[in-house]
Design brief:
The protein is mostly beta strands and 150 residues long. It is built from 2 helices and 10 strands, in the order H-E-E-H-E-E-E-E-E-E-E-E.
Length: 150
């Protein structure tokens, strides 16, 4: 009986189970009205040993503003189609100077990258979903350094 009540409480509050796996990032869950923006930060140092890191966005709604960093290094960021981008409608990259780059949604074998503009400093990527239209968006990505070929 106690377990059922605990599960009911967790489901009703929108709580997600935390993970110690640095290869899986969960954006903070907030009540979404379609224009909600949640922020998250991903450091290359935390994910460099991951084969397939991803962002798991429960009930995608509004916008996730993901900041990718590797202080002191140029970075490139590629978004990978892993058959889990349900609900994501647009992807926009924002470079350190504020320049925006519309990125196509990735397809199988064709990642969507900000690589020809590799830069020192953070790269922000906005994943826009609008209103809830899916249960889970699983956004695969790869961060490359200036020493790697994306």
């Amino acid at each position: 009986m106690r377990i059922a009540l605990l599960l009911l409480l967790l489901v009703s509050t929108g709580t997600t189970f935390p993970t110690d796996d640095p290869c899986v990032a969960y954006p903070p869950q907030e009540e979404c009205k379609g224009d909600t923006v949640v922020n998250m930060s991903i450091s290359y140092d935390d994910v460099k040993s991951c084969n397939f890191p991803d962002i798991r966005w429960n009930y995608p709604c509004g916008t996730v503003n993901a900041t990718f960093t590797y202080p002191g290094h140029k970075i490139n960021v590629c978004i990978i189609d892993n058959d889990g981008l349900s609900g994501v409608k647009t992807i926009t990259g924002i470079l350190p100077g504020g320049e925006t780059v519309s990125l196509p949604l990735p397809t199988a074998g064709n990642p969507s990258c900000i690589h020809e503009r590799a830069t020192h400093g953070p790269i922000r990527i906005l994943f826009y979903a609008g209103r809830v239209s899916a249960y889970l968006a699983r956004i695969g990505y790869h961060i490359c350094t200036d020493m790697e070929d994306c």
